[in-house]
């Protein structure tokens, strides 16, 4: 741990002074991040570094496999983070970020490795839909290809789980929330973003529109039937 303590001292002595005004403002006025990022706990995937975010920019929730349990499941840290980010912090964007060489997705190819990790095995049940898609819709993949396909499909599955959360569903219906699905390639530093219109992941390119999983679009499907005027 000595190296981390040394780096903490370096931060306090050299980095913090240049950003002291920012930290003072955050301490006195609170946080107002614009986005929630749900990413994998993998030590190689650091959301703030990937996005070059400043303190206060991102509300981050990390867990094994960048998973979002459906709302019907028991309450947990991810569900609470989603609800707080949307209802209390008013974030306008939520990103589910998967990545290459994901150990959680590799576990599906080697279930015996989880026999002594029952909590991990139970947690990964929230990604079984992605595993089913890859097993039944993809053919001829090697181990690397299977892991990559699982990681990409898992991002889509977790976005679908997000939509089951009441806070997310209502914010989407009010046209106040955009959902994003990203895939970070560790080996290249590139980001693929899920395009909800085409159903494909597309390389994010500087100067070009960012593909999004679900755009904000105000809707009240029962308004015409009930004589209600949408605000």
Short descriptors:
alpha/beta, six-stranded mixed beta sheet, 6 strands
Describe it for me?
The chain is built from 10 helices and 6 strands; from the N terminus they run ααβαβαβαααααβββα. α7 (128-137) crosses α8 (143-162). With 231 residues, the protein is an alpha/beta fold. The model has no long low-confidence stretch (mean pLDDT 93). It has helices at residues 2-15, 20-29, 47-51, 77-87, 103-106, 118-123, 128-137, 143-162, 166-173, 223-226, and strands at residues 35-40, 58-63, 93-99, 178-184, 191-195, 200-203. The longest helix is centred in the middle third of the chain and has 20 residues, at 143-162. The protein has a single domain (1-9, 30-220), classed as Beta-carbonic Anhydrase, Chain A (3-Layer(aba) Sandwich). A hairpin with a 6-residue loop joins β4 and β5. The protein has a 6-stranded mixed sheet, covered by helices on one side.
The CATH C-level name is: Alpha Beta
The mean pLDDT is 93
Radius of gyration: 19 Å
Tell me which CATH architecture applies here. 3-Layer(aba) Sandwich
Shape assignment: globular
How many separate domains?
1
Main sheet overview: 6 strands, mixed
CATH topology group: Beta-carbonic Anhydrase, Chain A
Function: Reversible hydration of carbon dioxide.
Enzyme class: lyase
Protein name: Carbonic anhydrase
Family: Belongs to the beta-class carbonic anhydrase family.
């Amino acid at each position: 741990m000595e190296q981390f303590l040394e780096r903490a001292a370096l931060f306090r002595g050299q980095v913090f002074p240049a950003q002291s005004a920012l930290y003072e403002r955050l301490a006195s006025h609170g946080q107002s991040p614009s986005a929630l990022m749900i990413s994998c706990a993998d030590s190689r995937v650091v959301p703030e570094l990937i996005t070059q975010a400043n303190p206060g920019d991102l509300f981050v929730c990390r867990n094994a496999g960048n998973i979002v349990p459906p709302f019907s499941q028991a309450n947990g840290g991810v569900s609470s983070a989603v609800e707080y980010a949307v209802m209390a912090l008013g974030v306008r964007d939520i990103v589910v970020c998967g990545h290459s060489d994901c150990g959680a997705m590799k576990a599906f190819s080697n279930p015996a490795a989880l026999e002594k990790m029952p909590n991990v095995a139970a947690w990964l049940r929230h990604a079984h839909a992605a595993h089913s898609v890859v097993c039944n819709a993809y053919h001829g993949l090697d181990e690397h290809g299977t892991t990559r396909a699982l990681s990409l499909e898992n991002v889509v599955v977790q976005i679908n789980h997000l939509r089951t959360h009441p806070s997310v569903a209502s914010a989407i219906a009010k046209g106040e929330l955009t959902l994003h699905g990203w895939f970070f390639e560790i080996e290249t530093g590139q980001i693929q973003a899920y395009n909800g219109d085409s159903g494909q992941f597309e390389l994010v390119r500087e100067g070009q529109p960012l593909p999004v999983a679900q755009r904000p679009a105000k809707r009240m499907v029962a308004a015409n039937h009930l004589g209600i005027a949408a605000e």
